[in-house]
Design goal:
five-stranded parallel sheet, Rossmann fold, elongated, 18% strand, 2 domains, 15 helices, 12 strands
Length: 325
């Protein structure tokens, strides 16, 4: 199945059910899938969620209905979309792509399985990682705490770098924590960081246009759903401006960025699918520990490195989980 067809199936599976099956939907559990971005940008991640859901014994269209709500990058619409799912009502809300805060604000009773790049305790989602205690559990991707490691890898590749850029979405709730960690890591190494803010497609273009003016030697892309949804644009601009660029996930490197370091996002979403299935079977979010990543990946794009005229050190190649050629 090609990518476009697959996305269409994901977004409209409930509508495509046979009439007999649709008539029985009231007897089937309903999962609300809430995301701040678009189905095209998150197709691979949604596929991973379905793998986990299937492993838990649920197949969309057979014994579970999935209601999708996509904000298409308009994060301000998430509260209304979450409210729609609550009114539906659904049996579980899967809140991804920056939708976790809106989901939690919308209901204190419907179970929520979230993904978050920040400390879920500080965000008020759970009481603790081991015993969440309320109606929400899920997975954290530790975006802020990994920033120092990503900076260290970039400096190992380009030890002479005088100025590192940080592409930041200032509207993203987790951006301040990531930036704080990055600035602390930079100070510890005597490195300077120049922040480039962007929360729209045009602002991404503007940020990259300033790279030559401020003489950046490398760029770190902040971990946000918005940037993940614009990874092809970011990769194209990084190539055009010949700037070594690092992000937090494999999908950025597949789009053409030089490298990434972070948890396996597809594995996280697979586990979110498994948790969703367990809750549908009767387990309570309060009793399911918040998942923290155990698998981290360093991905390097050798084709991009050659285009940039960079020689990847043997040590980094040996550490890489995957080298794309």
């Amino acid at each position: 199945m090609n990518r476009r067809a697959f996305i269409t199936v994901l977004g409209g599976a409930a509508a495509a059910l046979p009439l007999a099956a649709r008539a029985q939907q009231g007897a089937l559990p309903v999962v609300g899938f809430l995301n701040g971005q678009s189905p095209r940008a998150f197709a691979d991640i949604v596929a991973a969620f379905h793998v986990g859901l299937n492993q838990a014994g649920y197949v969309e269209g057979r014994n579970v209905v999935v209601e999708y709500r996509w904000a298409q990058g308009r994060m301000e619409t998430l509260p209304a979309l979450a409210a729609e799912l609550v009114r539906r009502p659904v049996d579980v809300i899967v809140a991804t792509g920056g939708a976790h805060i809106a989901a939690k604000a919308a209901t204190s009773t419907i179970p929520i399985v979230f993904t978050s790049g920040e400390d879920a305790i500080k965000e008020g989602l759970v009481a603790s990682f081991n015993r969440p205690g309320g109606n929400a559990t899920g997975a954290t991707v530790l975006s802020a705490t990994l920033v120092a490691k990503r900076l260290a890898i970039v400096l190992e590749l380009i030890p002479s770098a005088a100025l590192i850029g940080a592409l930041v979405d200032p509207t993203f709730s987790e951006a301040p924590a990531q930036l704080t960690q990055l600035q602390a890591a930079a100070r510890a190494t005597g490195q300077q960081v120049h922040v480039l803010n962007a929360s729209t497609e045009n602002e991404i273009d503007t940020a990259f246009a300033s790279i030559s003016r401020v003489h950046l030697n490398a760029l770190l892309v902040g971990a946000t759903p918005f940037f993940r949804g614009r990874r092809n644009q970011i990769a194209a601009l990084a190539a055009r401006h010949a700037i070594p660029t690092s992000a937090d996930g494999r999908d950025f490197v597949e789009a053409g960025l030089l490298m990434s370091y972070g948890p396996s996002i597809t594995d996280i979403y697979r586990q979110v699918g498994i948790y969703t299935g367990r809750i549908l079977k009767g387990e309570k979010p309060a009793d399911l520990p918040v998942l923290q990543p155990t698998k981290f990946e360093l991905i390097i794009n050798l084709t991009t490195a050659k285009a940039l005229g960079l020689q990847i050190p043997d040590r980094l190649l040996a550490l890489a989980d995957e080298v794309i050629e």
